[in-house]
TrEMBL record:
One of its GO terms (molecular function) is ferric iron binding. InterPro entries: Catechol_dOase_N (IPR007535), Cchol_dOase_prob (IPR012801), Intradiol_dOase_C (IPR000627), Intradiol_dOase_core (IPR015889), Intradiol_RC_Dioxygenase (IPR050770). Pathway: Aromatic compound metabolism; beta-ketoadipate pathway; 5-oxo-4,5-dihydro-2-furylacetate from catechol: step 1/3. This is catechol 1,2-dioxygenase. The keyword Protease does not apply. Residues 133-161 form the Intradiol ring-cleavage dioxygenases domain. The lineage of its organism: Bacteria, Pseudomonadati, Pseudomonadota, Gammaproteobacteria, Moraxellales. Belongs to the intradiol ring-cleavage dioxygenase family. Its EC number is 1.13.11.1. GO terms for biological process: beta-ketoadipate pathway; catechol-containing compound catabolic process. Keywords: Aromatic hydrocarbons catabolism, Dioxygenase, Iron, Metal-binding, Oxidoreductase. Its cofactor is Fe(3+). Coiled coil: none annotated.
Length: 245
């Protein structure tokens, strides 16, 4: 089946059969994605057994709550950042801290403070190094931004995140700090470690098929926002981690 025939088939099944009000944007996206999928089946001679195995995999990934992890692991989230960077460049938007992927493990509602916060609950302070995170929020011209909302979160010494790891206290290693009158914020926490995908999970199973490891270097996540400014999603890695590249 050639592409014209595929497009006609997809239109017949997903456009011509509409009998109720249509969300035009959803229809546009679905029609394109389904047609591209059909084309891939033609080009790669994907067999019915492989199609059903793929659907079974997606079902299992959803049950395991790993679809967000899969999006990061296969590069989808990074691709979205690259598209945003490209759009900024075309619009002449330059400077500032680079954006980086959010990842699937953010939780809203972390305790708030102004200027300073201790992020850890003390449960690992006896065997992990203390990490002091500090910075100043400014615009791209260096002007201080007071009362900027700095949301910070990271993994514990076992590479696990609170809420997803039920052994941790609520909001452990998650805080929201509003910058002070000098635009500064300081967080005291424990040194995070890198981690990998769940070794028996669906994401790692696919990465194994691709000959890839699923490890991340040690890192700390950020959301930074303020009225009148675009929200920044970014993170920093801990220097010296073996998985930096």
């Amino acid at each position: 089946m050639d592409r014209q025939q595929i497009d006609t088939l997809v239109k017949e099944m997903n456009v011509d059969t509409a009998t109720r009000p249509v969300d035009q944007r959803v229809q546009q996206i679905v029609v394109r994605l389904v047609a591209d999928l059909f084309q891939a089946i033609e080009d790669l001679d994907i067999q019915p057994s492989e199609v059903w195995k793929g659907l079974e995999y997606i079902t299992d990934a959803g049950k395991a709550n790993e679809l967000g992890l899969l999006a990061a692991g296969l590069g989808l989230e990074h691709y979205l950042d690259l598209r945003a960077d490209e759009a900024d460049a075309k619009a002449g938007v330059t400077g500032g801290t680079p954006r980086t992927i959010e990842g699937p493990l953010y939780v809203a509602g972390a305790p708030e403070s102004v200027g300073f916060a201790r992020m850890d609950d003390g449960s690992e302070s006896d065997h992990l190094d203390t990490l002091i995170i500090e910075g100043t929020v400014t615009d791209t011209n260096g002007n201080i931004i007071e009362n900027a909302k700095v949301e910070v979160w990271h993994a514990n010494g076992l590479g696990n995140y609170s809420f997803f790891d039920k052994s941790q206290s609520d909001f452990n290693l998650r805080r929201t700090i509003f910058s002070d009158t000098n635009g500064k914020y300081v967080a005291q926490t424990t040194m995070p470690v890198g981690y990998g995908c769940p070794p028996d999970g669906t994401t790692q199973a696919l990465l194994n098929k691709l000959g890839r490891h699923g490890n991340r270097p040690s890192h700390v996540h950020y959301f930074i926002s303020a009225p009148g400014y675009r929200k920044l999603t970014t993170q920093f890695n801990i220097e010296g981690d073996q998985y930096l590249w």
